[in-house]
Amino acid sequence: MKLLHVLAPNQPGVLARIAEALAAAGVNIEDFDVESHGAEGILSLTVDKYDEALHILRDLGYRAVTQDTLLIRIEDKPGALAKIAVVLKDAGCDLRSMHIVRRADQFSIVSLVTSDNAAAAAVLRDVLIGEPPV
């Protein structure tokens, strides 16, 4: 799975402009997160049509960068995230980002990016969803 990060001015209407442009092109936003950092904002999103979304964002004049992410499925209970963090630490993988994408039926789907996704995929193979990015 690829995660798109969009760097944009922190001002009213930015999310609306991006969401409308993606919708007009038939791109579905599957997950998003918005963070404010002073005058700048960072919109992190996953979409169903990655390449199309990337072109649209760049055509709108936004700086969009991408990251390969791993998806894991873990029990939704206290300590489950801690176990994953310890496994990654023991494998020497620095956790760069982690985001709960969905919670349902006593499980959580978590998106994560590490300093070494291949090593992380190897140690998380029991909870990994799909194939790791190459």
Task: Explain this structure.
This protein is of the alpha+beta class. The protein has helices spanning 14-24, 50-59, 80-90, 117-123, and strands at 2-9, 29-37, 40-47, 63-68, 70-75, 95-104, 107-114. It contains four helices and seven strands; from the N terminus they run E-H-E-E-H-E-E-H-E-E-H. The strands form two sheets. The chain has a four-stranded antiparallel beta sheet, with helices on one face. It has a three-stranded antiparallel beta sheet with strand order 5-7-6. Strand 2 (29-37) and strand 3 (40-47) form a beta hairpin. The longest helix has 11 residues, at 14-24.
Shape: elongated
In the CATH scheme, the class of the largest domain would be Alpha Beta
Flag low-confidence runs. none
Q: How large is the radius of gyration?
A: 16 Å
What structural category arises from helix and sheet content? alpha+beta
Spell the H/E element sequence. EHEEHEEHEEH
As a percent range, the share of helical residues equals 25-40%
Mean pLDDT comes to 89
